[in-house]
Amino acid sequence: MPCLSRCRWRWLTKASSSAPRALAAAAPTGGLAAAIVIADMLAVLPITIAGLGVREKAFESLLGRWYDVPPAPAVLGSLAGFAVLAAVAAAGALLLPLRAEAAA
Predict the structure, then answer these.
(1) Is 2 helix (H, G, I), strand (E, B) or coil?
(2) pTM here?
(3) Contact status, residue 59 vs residue 35, Cβ threshold 8 Å
(4) Quick one: which of 22, 68, 21, 60 has its CA closest to 38?
(5) Residue 87 in contact with residue 30, Cβ under 8 Å?
(6) What long-range pairs does 41-45 form, CB within 8 A, spacing at least 24?
(7) What pLDDT shows up at residue 54?
(8) CA dihedral 91, 30, 3, 77 (to 10 degrees)
(9) In this predicted model, what pLDDT tens digit does every residue of 18-33 receive, in sequence order?
(10) HEC string for 4-69
(11) In which domain, by residue range, is 15 found?
(12) pLDDT at 85
């Protein structure tokens, strides 16, 4: 499990930092990591389904204030990170029946 968490964090950081950079919006990796942590903490609040909208607004606000990143790349970075989270969750959902069979 720790390896999966480490891998997920690496993929999440890479996806969230690569997407804004693809649109020529420069923000350091440390700042993006801090934005990811803050946005994810806000996203777990029971405001919207799966934190969508909250996470994007947090990225837009934080990266815009800290590094003058335009809104579109900031939101794209957030959505790329959400895509990684969804992919990891989908992989876990596909592997869950295999684990249940092994336990039986």
Answers:
(1) helix
(2) 0.69
(3) yes
(4) 60
(5) no
(6) none
(7) 92
(8) 0
(9) 655 555 566 777 777 7
(10) HHHHHHHHHHHHHHHHHHHCCCCCCHHHHHHHHHHHHHHHCCCCCHHHCCHHHHHHHHHHHHHHCC
(11) 2-103
(12) 80
- What pLDDT, in 10s, does the model give residues 60-101? 999 889 888 888 888 888 888 788 888 888 888 888 887 767
Inform me whether the pLDDT recorded for 2 exceeds 70: no
Q: Which two tokens mark 52?
A: 């969508």
Q: Looking at the 3D structure of the chain, how many domains does it have?
A: 1
Task: Give the position of tokens 């609040």.
Answer: 45
Phi and psi at residue 47, in whole multiples of 5°? -105, -45
Average the pLDDT over 22-46 and give the result.
Answer: 78
User: 49, 15, 50: which is closest to 29 by C-alpha?
Assistant: 15
Is residue 1 within a helix (H) or strand (E), and if so which, with residue range?
A: none
